[in-house]
Amino acid sequence: MKKYKWIGMLLVATVLVSCGGLQPFAFDQLCPAEVTFPEQVRTVAVVNHTPSIPSPKKTLLTLGRLDGDGKVLAEGLAGGLADSRYFNQVIISDSVLAQEQSTGELLSQSAVDSLSQVLGADMIFSIDHIQLLTEKKEIYYPGFVPMTALSLKIRPVVRAYIPSRLMPVVTLNKVDSLLWDLSPSLSDYDVVNDASTHAAHTLVNQLVPHWKNVERIYFDGGNPDMRDAAVSLREGDWEEAGRIWKNLYDSVKKGKLKSRAAFNMALACEVQGQMQEAVSWIEKAQKSASPGSSEERAATFYSTILKEQAKDYQLLNLQMGRFSHKFN
């Protein structure tokens, strides 16, 4: 069984890399969560509030609606939150709640207060439902025979509660997708367990800051200094690479070399978490580039990314304030 995650392709970057002097580069970047919690939330509990489901069959593959496994999701979510070390303590409980409720039913305030007291938690994450939808899909690649795949949409419903509040403070129910090779061995058991595990990973990334591998491009060659800086980049010595690029930018009056040095300086600043400086350098790269050139197209493309990243870093600083860490 081969499983795929739908990923948006950076088509513009692919076109730009085909231009002379551009190289791809990837690195791990700390990204903010979609939800920001007060610093006072230190201990959290994950509870499985989903209705019981029959054991998924290993000899049957259902096309249509399925229910995910709340226990697998709760365990994966609690484990992921604990591994992130964002909260002081993560507690999991699969037995405190009776599993006789209707699908999607809210926890009562009395239940939240009781759970918080019994578990010693500042916040309760309730796994309320996980809905799966499967269908066959034909995947076409130019020059290849069409592939029959199983498309899966996953919609978990998780609510966050704090004591003394009647309604949940956060509800997460974003739809995600997976794609499998449609093989004879694929079954409901595989789909339910893998989907529930994947949903847990996705939810962790929504709830706490997380590392993500991001793709970028940089200019290489055309000048001995550019080649030396590229060597430093590949060795991870960003201070030396930045020093060379800055000296080159200052020594060149105009032209594509000046724009390329500024572009690479923007990348060096982003990798080192200096987002405002990165935005400033990419603006310099745009001003130095000739209209319609590959340097201008690359800088315009990267400028859009950096401006979004600058907003994310402001949010990340807020979320990481509990550790007194700054990322810009």
What is this structure's SSE topology?
Elements: E1 3-5, H1 11-17, E2 22-31, E3 43-48, E4 64-67, H2 70-84, E5 89-93, H3 109-119, E6 123-139, E7 147-161, E8 170-172, E9 176-181, H4 188-207, E10 210-219, H5 224-234, H6 238-251, H7 256-271, H8 275-288, H9 294-319
Parallel strand pairs: 3-5, 3-6
Antiparallel strand pairs: 1-9, 2-10, 4-6, 6-7, 7-8, 7-9
Radius of gyration: 24 Å
- Could you state the order of secondary-structure elements as H and E? EHEEEHEHEEEEHEHHHHH
Query: What's the mean pLDDT score?
Result: 88
Q: Look at the helices and sheets and give the structural class.
A: alpha+beta
Give the end-to-end Cα distance, rounded to a whole number of Å. 42 Å
The tally of helices reads 9
Strand residue content: 15-25%
Helix content: 40-55%
Uncertain segments: 1-20
What CATH architecture of the largest domain do you see? 2-Layer Sandwich
**Sheet bearing the most strands, described?**
8 strands, mixed
Compute the number of strand runs. Answer: 10
Estimate the global geometry from the Cα principal axes.
flat
Under CATH at level 1, the class of the largest domain stands as Alpha Beta
